[in-house]
Sequence to fold (427 residues):
Amino acid sequence: MKKRVLVFPAGSEIALEINNALKYSTHFEVYGLSSVPCHAAYVYSNYIEGIPFYTESNFCEELNRIIDENQIDFIYPAYDDIQLYLTENKDRFHAQIVTSELDTVRICRSKETTYRYFNMLEFIPEFYSSIDGVTSFPVFVKPDVGQGSQGAMIVDTKEELELALKKNPDLIICEYLPGDEFTIDCLTDNKGELRVCRMRDRKRIRNGISVSSQRLAVPDDILHMAQEINRRLKFCGAWFFQIKKNDKGEYRLMEIAPRIAGTMGMSRNTGVNFPLLTLFCLMELPVDIIENEYHIEVDRALISRYHTDLDYDTIYVDLDDTLIVNGRINTVLIQYLYQTVNQGKRRILLTKHSREVSDTLLENRISESLFDEVIRIDRDKEKRDYIHYKKSIFIDDSFSERKKISQACNIPVFDCSEVEALLDWRV
Fold:
């Protein structure tokens, strides 16, 4: 039987990558859990909403109820504070927490603690315990406990630094690192061996998230850094660290996180599935990796997912300039049509195609069996006269056809640009 994995909170970028990495697995079944409404409802096949915040007194009781009711085997934390809380309280829960050792999680959660723990190593940036210790400006200040770039800033003068610390006394003061920034994605197996070390740049960052990145070769000094971190902390599965160059071009550590990173999806698409391999490591299973050696880049932007209240069992769809556009298959529409196969809906190809329809489908490698019916009508006929199912929708590039169908049949009509609203991204 598949092991059941509960991802919490399900709507974070971390969680969305975990879902993408596991949703096709033959070993695991993914559940999403959120305290508040979020994007997770659009992408998880199994989604639960409304658990109290982890800071509330009844959180543990409610989480155990959800675990028991859904027979959950693993809880996959998808936010730093929640990972720390679940790791600190792992004995209270009825499922195994996907995490590293508690000391490792605690050290990584505090940047100052991280810097002090590794202070003897050459790649730690210079940091200051007080304003009086700062010898030159600019400096860089950031929250000791935080994520992304929230609250981080460059400070150019002592007066600015005093003001920043007055507003937030928990800021730590570091040397300013003006160079390029990189993320190093790593995997440590259950025996403590560093199995994966992959480097990527952070070409464009939005809200602390790398939204444009490419895979890079790992220099020896970066590999050495990863090995030193791995030797001194006890990880289980995926972890990453971020580095930046100082004014001399030397790499300096910014932070370490013992969890999945959202942009690890780039490595997944070369064969290194960090969320899946992490579960195998936690289960003390041997891991083997086949990695495709090619250059890869990722660029991320806001995407749209849709829920509708449409209730229909039949799709009437056109061929020319709809299913086949400019001599090419409309891959979004063909994806949607195959989804309706999974949903048990009826598909009817309704067309005024001038040639033999079966020949055109064959030439485009589209199986005629995709359709429950193929209806070819003459140019002088009206498509509205061939629509007999009341709970149906109509997809056609022609506005005039859509208008006739809408008025005569009183059913929803769509052009090619509207098909995305019909797609279901839950597997």
